[in-house]
Each structure stands twice: as structure tokens, then as C-alpha cells.
Amino acid sequence: MQEYTYATDKELNQSLLKDVLGMPKWWLGAVSFLALVWLMGLGAYGWELNQGIGVLGVNRPVYWGFLITNFVFWIGISHAGIMVSAILRLTQAEWRRPVTRAAEVLTLFSLLAALSNIMFHVGRPWRLYWVAPYDFERGVWPNIRSPFVWDPSAVGTYLIGSSLFVFIALIPDLAALRDRSTGLPRKFYAMASLGFRGTQSQWKLQAVAGILLSALVLPVFVSVHSIVSWDFAVSIGVEGWHSTIFAPYFIIGAIHSGVSAVAMVMALMVWLWKWDKYITPDHFDAIGRLLIIVATTWFFFFALEWIFALYTLEGPELSLREWQVFRLPMGPLFLTFMITAYFIPVPAWLFKAVRRSPKWMFWTTILVNIGMWLERFLIIVPGLQRRQPFEFEWGSYAPSIVEILLVASTFAFVGMGILIFAKIFPLIPLFDMKEGTRLRDTIRVGRRVVPASIRE
Amino acid sequence: MANEAIHYPLGHAADNPKWTSAEIITDDLLSRREKASKTFWIATSVFGVLLALGVIGMIMRLVDGVSDTAQWGYTAAVLSFMLTTASAAPMVAIAPRVAKGHWRRIVSRPAEIWSVAGLISLLLFIPMLWALPSLEDGRRSMWFYHPGEVYPYSPHLWTTLAIVALVVVGFMLLWVSALPDLAAVRDRSPLGSAVRRRYTWLSRGWIGTSAQWDWQKHRIGILGAFYFLMLITVHFLFSIDFLMTLVPGWIDALYPATHAANALQAGVATVILTMFFLRRFCGYKEIGHDQFWGLGKLMFALSLMWFWFWFSSFNVFWYGKKPNEEAVLELFIKGPYLPIFYLTFITVFIVPMFTMIWNFFRRSVWGPAIISVSVLIGTFFDRVRIYVGAYSVSDQAGNHEGIETIPPTVYPDLADVFIVVGAIGGAIFVYMLATRVFPIINVWEQKELLLYKLHKKYHRTVVLVLGKPE
Amino acid sequence: MADAKWGMVIDADRCTGCQACVVACQSENNIPINDEGLFNQQRANQWIRIERVWEGEYPDVKARFMPVLCQHCDDAPCEPVCPVYATYHNTEGMNVQIYNRCIGTRFCANNCPYQVRFFNFWEPEWPESLKNQLNPDVTVRSRGIMEKCSFCVQRIRRTGHNAKRDGTTVEDGDRALNPACSNACPTGALTFGNLKDENSQVAKLAEKEMHDKDGRGYHLLEELGTHPSVIYLKKVDPAAEKVTEKAHG
Questions:
Q1: Can you name the CATH fold of A9-453?
Q2: ipTM of the complex
Q3: CB distance B401–C223 less than 8 Å?
Q4: N or C: which end of chain B has fewer CB within 10 A?
């Protein structure tokens, strides 16, 4: 059942590097389109800087809307990288090899998109640097009790850790590119590959660094989204936020949406770069099975959150839940969220035919991410709309065109980032794939030949 | 490709170099367990005496009366401890099977046999059904009690069903997993002997056809998944119905998950300790570094997870400063159980974290064993802190605002001590008796490994090539 | 002022819902003009607001009014969450907002359970003719900044400085000390003063109404444990009194 690709080193080099050294036909068009959307977003932001937060849809009482939802969403997607590269590396899952770099790059750009949302949403972004502890002279420090100071610390650490991770894993491939290019690109690759020549000790260093980083970045992985969830959970002023389950709930939700995003990217890699030889139905099958477990665990935490919300049978919380589920406009959104995040994808993934098809995986995982975006929205906005018991202050929320453009621009930014990355660096890690071929073997068990890997 | 075994020079792989064929494995493993030593029977009797003490303690407690819920704190604590350690231990057999790691083969049976300790859990649970008041006392519950519309004994009904299901599925999983080995014991025993008759009955006609193997593999998968589901359900129901609802103002959506996560950690600790005993005192040197290392890594990760779950709850309560939540923190952490909390925190998190972070500690035999003892002690006191504290305020459960007065520390009386000692001793007693029926090491899985293993020359060295089952 | 804890007692029985306090606050504190457009955007800025609640069924419908302003909580949930310390608790028991420091994350506004924090979504503008009306003692906030009731801290400071300069003490009930809302209220529903001064009106009212058996005093959202400095006195419902009288004969 498991078919591994047996490609020679030469084949790997050629197919994985040709789109870096050459230019795929569709690339320029795709990047231009995404750049256009991104620029529209920048334009919208310029308008916001000029006019004020008033151009967004936020108001009193709904002080946080689309932009914070988007922030939490992208932090969620950023958990894809760690899950696929670090955790699967530490558990020695072989199927991670073709997708590990794409997942990590997705993480990098998601984190940048998330941070940009913070910049978009504050009232005085030109003073945003006050959150950093830089003022050694006047002694004016940021408030370390605030979750909004924990956030940049955690996200910043994660960003640095992920960048290091991508870079360290890139070094051997950069060396391969250096050896195959001329002129200015060669100078760039030569500098970036830090003189990697593939000697015994260099490979050993690189392997150890990879394993260490995988282990060290795991606590960061857990803490980043826990901290983002505590932006909401520590608050007593908003119904539906003050729940202890938020930290694990958000993390498992992040893994759910992140791994789904990786599956999406995998499908795109097969279609755009024609890498169906390296990203086989087996890989989709493996990620599909992981997704079933992750999604069901997520659903368990979701159910726990709801049970305890309703547990007290108190007016304010019940009123919020009723508003979220049964009233317009939140009711249809809630239904959409439930169906797209769990009740269509997971039953679909139970079928092997669905799991093994890039097309089906692509569309089901898009549904998952639509649902998870809605999930964040439904956590943030309904509670803000109905602040009990001051019914006099109840409000509504509608996104403005600026917010919609800004959100769209973050998606364009991440897409653009991955495409540009794939033009400069190989998106499938060469050495990982080659290492995989070295460690692979077969064993005859009776009349069957079973794939095997070499273990120490 | 002939599967010739070359004596593998690097000794840390769990490997008995003599195990070169299926017959040798069967013979070796089953002959070792044929007769139990005198030490074994003395030890078993000691634990049997402890079990008897436990029964006496339970009778003493019952004589005191079942209506005062506050008296049952220690019983609830030790029952929760059983569910956290013995009932969770089979997960070490189930989960790595899904992940298809080979190192777990030798520890899966010792882990699975722990499900028989569920009998002790049932014994402890039955009086609790009378100790827990009905929903009519006005406390909050997840059954959304309404007079006339919801059955007031819903917690009792559903938790009983869950625990019984857990124990039954555990037994079934053990039996299905052991079937081939029971058949092997049958085949080795002399015709007409009592042993042969017993094992013929136990092995239900197993002869090892393809169809039977397929059936067994399928059933193990389903039963394993079901056991996991039931374990989570039991922890969920028990921690809510028999714990959280008794404390007014304790609204913690995370706690059922915390309770279950603690169980994973303590289950791994139980198995590590069992492995240590088997290696050190029963001569099973095949349980080697690979096993301790694998479980040690798991233990490290789960200890970190203990902290993460605890801190998630703590942070939200502590930061929000709501009076009802501050009272809960006072009861369980800062107040009468502060020393126990420190003990728990140190043994369950600090010690494992700062020792298991070192490879030499994690990769040894004694390292994970010491940490397991630490974790088990810590888990026990954690359960005592939470359950005894909760049961001590159970009379205020109807007051929805929150805990009004925090009672002082509740110390165990003689009956409580007997019950605790009896429960732990009884679990070990039942375990040891079970090992006389089910072979302690999973023979068929070791034989299966032979099929997947191949030592091959690789450049200038010899490596082990392991097939990945599908 | 040393050794002061500023607090307020609001008698809901006396409030007629006339909104004089809202207007006075707006003019004293340079609050941006709330036109209809701003109200429709749900961004109106009212440091003190009158909550109107309908009680009863037709034809016995009654309107009840509650002035709600910043409660200056001792355990203010808005304070720990500001990333830049733009809001903190001063030594006189007040929750203060530092306009210059605010970067506009709006976390404090979310965490305030009383909904008394306001954000400047737009750059506030006054017509030329009204610019002379602005109070020079109070900062004019730009867009992107949070603001809320400050118990007219500028008046407290000014009275304190004047007293020190003149060698006198600050007197309880001094109209120059009281916040604008308290002065403007025609029925005397808002009483302001130093809760630590036993002889002040507020302290006497607080003691009586919170601790007496028939006291009408309570805190808003007591169950959240915020310990506000504002005490509300329950409305006395004449109809309810008659029922009690009849029942007891």
C-alpha cells in the first residue's frame, strides 16, 4: 500500500530545481494577481492611517472585529509548520519529507500576516513600538501583566525560531543551487549557504541542529497560541470569553486549520509544479488520517466549551449562546461553521478514496479553513455585541470595505510569499528527499514485499 | 532475502540475540512463566492482605454511613487514582500500536494486563453511588436537572455505565490481544492436564488461521479505539459528576481534559514502573533501553503537558479575580492544601522536567523508573488534594454563588488509610494473579517482529532494517 | 491629595433621566460632539451615560434611569490588560487614563464589564465657534486614544493646589471639587467625596446604606469582584411599599 518514490538523486535535483533555476509559465501571472490584491490592501491601510480607525467596522461595543479574527486565524495557520516538520520529525514519520519546507514557509508568512493585523488594528500604530522593552533611560516599561505584551514576545520568539528552522534546513539546498547557478544568483546562494560542502561533520552539525530546533520550538508552539487564547480568556468583561479551556482549545483548533492548510498547499504543489511523483496519494492519505484525529479532538474540546458555557444555566451566558446559534445573522454563520469545520470534511475523510485524492483533500480543507475563520469570528464578535447586563449598550457589527480589503490582502500576502519563496528556494527539500531514499529499503515477508526503513 | 539474524553489535536495541525463530521465542517466553517462584506467591499474599485491609476499611466507612458525602473524599481520591493509573496504562499498548512503533511490542502486554485492576475500581465505585447525592440537592450539573423532566440520578446512571463499559472493554481487549498466546500455552501443556483444559477454554479454538489473525487484528483496533473513548468518557463523567459539581462556583471547562491528560501521564508512569520490576526482579532483560527511552520521552512530554493544562486553568482564574474563582484557588491551592500542592507540583512537573531533559537520564533504565515513582506519588497527592478538598465543601454545593467558607485540611482517618492501602494493594494483587493466567510478555508480537526485522550490511556497518507494517 | 479615596454615591431614586450630567461632563471634559451620524455608527462618546430600562407591563410601564460612569474599581479589570500602562490605579483610589501613552489596542474597553470606556475612532473636530469653549485644564484627545470618566481629576487637582497655596483644606461638598456631573444634577442624585473622610457626605451615606439592615446600597456587578468606588442606592418603589404595608397591617 505504501508506495515510495524511488527517484535517483539526479532526477530529484532536476525536477525540484528546475522551477528555481527557470521560470514556470504560470508564476508571473499568479504573483502579479496576488501582488495586486496585496497592494489594494496596502492602499486601504493608507486610507485607514489617514482617516482613523473609524473607517473600519468596529464600534462600541464591538471594539474588535475582522482584524483580530484574522490575527487569531493566521496564528492558527502558523501552527502547521511545527506540526508537520517538528512533531513529525521527532516521531520519525517518513511521509513528512516532501511537505516539511512548504509547511514551514507557510508558518513564516502566516506569522508575518498575523503581526500585520495587529498593526492594522491599533489606534496609533506609529506608537506600537512602545510594547517593546527598549526604554532604558526613562524607565518606562511595557506592562508585563498584559496579554498584549505576552503576545509579541511569544509570536516574536516563534518567528525567530521558525526562520532559523527554515534557514538551517535550507543550507544544503542552497549549496546545491550555488553549484548550479552563475553570476549574481550564484553570489547570493554562495553567501547564504555559508560554505556548505557536504562534509561528514557539516552534515552531522546540520542534523543535530535540526533535531535540537525541532525539540526547542515545541514549547514555543504550545505557548504561542495559548497566549493568544489568553487575550480572550483572562477577560471577565465579555461573555463567552472567560473559559479555562481556551488554551488547549485554540491550540487544537490551530493544528486543525494549520494541517488543513498544509494539505491545501500540498494539492497546489501537485497541480502547479507537477510534483505528483513526490507528493503521492499516500501523503494525502497520511495527512487525511492525521486530520481525522485532530478534527475529532478539536470537536471534543469544542463540545466541552459549550457544555460548561451552558453548565451554569445563567442568563447572560445562555443569552449569548442563543444569539450565536438561533438568531440572525449569527445563526447561519454558526451553522456554516459547524458544517464546514467538521461535519462535511471528517465524514468525507473517512473514505480512503477521498483521502487519496488531491482534489477532494483540497476542497475539504478549504471548507475547514472557512469554518475555522468563522469559528474565531463567532468567539470574538457575538460576545462583544451583547455585554450583559447593559442591554442598552448592545450593538451590532458589520465589516467595512477597508477591513475586507485588509483581510484579503493578508491571504494574498501569504500566497505571494510562498510563490516568491518557491522561485528563489526549492519548495521541496532536496536533501530530505535524498535522505529518505537512503534510509529506505524493503523486506520480504512471506510473499509480500513490505517497505522498511533503516533504523539505528 | 533470508532473514538471518546477525548478532547486532549496538546493544541498546531491545533484542534478545537468542530469538532467531518463532519456536525459540515461544519456548523461551512461555517456559519462563510456567512456574511462579515462592517469592512471587509471598508477594502476592502480602498484597492480598492489603486488599483485605481495604475491605475492612470500606466496611468501617460504610458503617459510619453513606449520607455524609464529605467522608468519602479519600475514597473518591483513590478511586480517581486507580482510574488515572491502572485504567490508563493500557493506553501505552493502544496508542503506539496506532503509531506503529516497534519498541512497544514488549511492553504492550504488561500494560494491557493493568485493565484487570478495573475490578478494584468497580469495588470502590459501588459505595460512591450512595455517597453522591441526587441532583435534587440543587447543585449545578451538566445534566441540566429539572424536576420532573430530568432523572435526578442521571450522574449515577451514566457514570456507572461508563465505568462498567471501560472495565468490560478492558477485559475484552486483554483477552483478544492474548488469544494467540493462550493458544500457545494450551499447545505446550500436556494433553489431559488441568492446565490444558483451562487454556483450551480460554483460547476458544484459536488455531492461527489467516481468517483468525485478520479478525484479531481488526478487533484489537476497534477495541483499542473504544477503550480510549471509554477512558476519556469515564474521566470526563467522573471528574464532573463526582468532583466538580460538588464545589460551588467551580466552573472549569478544562478540568475534564486535565483529568484525562493527568491519566495519560500517570498511565505511562505505571507502565514504566512495571517494566522496571519485570526487568529487575523477574529477569526480563529484553525490556531494554529502547523501551525506557521511548516511554521516557513520552513521560517528559506528558509532564510538560501537566503543567500546561494546570497553568491554563490557573491563569484564567487567577487573572480574572472573580470572587467565586478566587475561592476555588484558595481551596485547592493557596489554602488548606498548600503543602500538598507544592509536593504535587514538584514531583509531577519540576522533577520530571529538569531531569528528563537530559538524554543520559532519559535513556537509562533507572532514570525513567525514578521519575515514575515521583510522578505516581505526585499524582496520588494531586488527587487527594482535589477530591478531599472538593468533598469537604460538598455541603455547600447548592449555593450557586460560590464557596462561602473554606473548611480546614481534612486528614485521613483509619478507615481512609485502610481503603487507600487496600485499593493500591488490591490492584497489584489482581495484577499479579492475572499474570498467572495471561503470559506477561506478548509472545505473538515478538514473533511478528521477527518477520519485519532484518540485519543488513550497510556500507561499512551493519544496520537494523525495520519494516513498516501496513 | 494625600490620604484620599474618591468615591461617589448615586441615588437611583432621585435620578429623573434629565441628562444634565451628560451635558455637563461633555462640556467640562472636551468630549467630542456626538452627532446623529456618530450615534448611528454606535461610536458615541458619553463618559457618563443614562441607562434607561423599561419596567412592567402596559399600562403600568415605568422608565427607570441609571447613570453609569467609570466605577474606578479597586480591582479594575481594565488595568492589567493595557500593554503600555496607559491606565493604572493612582494612590487616591482612582483609575486614571494617560492619553499620551495610549496606543489604542482597545483591550481595556473589552475587559471593562461596565462598558464605560470610549475610543476616539475619528479625529475629534469642533466648529470654529466652539473652540473657545474647550476647557484648558483638560487634554484634547486625538484619534486612536481611549478615554473615560476621570472623576474630573482636573478639578480635584486644582482644588488641592489652591488649598495648598492658600493654606486652607479641601472642603467636602466644595463645588469646585465636585465633578461637573455632580454639580449639574438638579436632584442631587450624584454625591461625590472622599470615602476616607468619615465626615464627608459620601462616607456617611456609604456607611449607612451599605451596612444598615434597610440600606439601599449596592455595587454594580458585585459578583465580578471588581470592588467599585461607586455605590448605587436602590430606587424606592412607592407601589411596593404599599403592598408591604398592607401585608403587615
A1: Formate dehydrogenase/DMSO reductase fold (1.20.1630)
A2: 0.91
A3: yes
A4: C
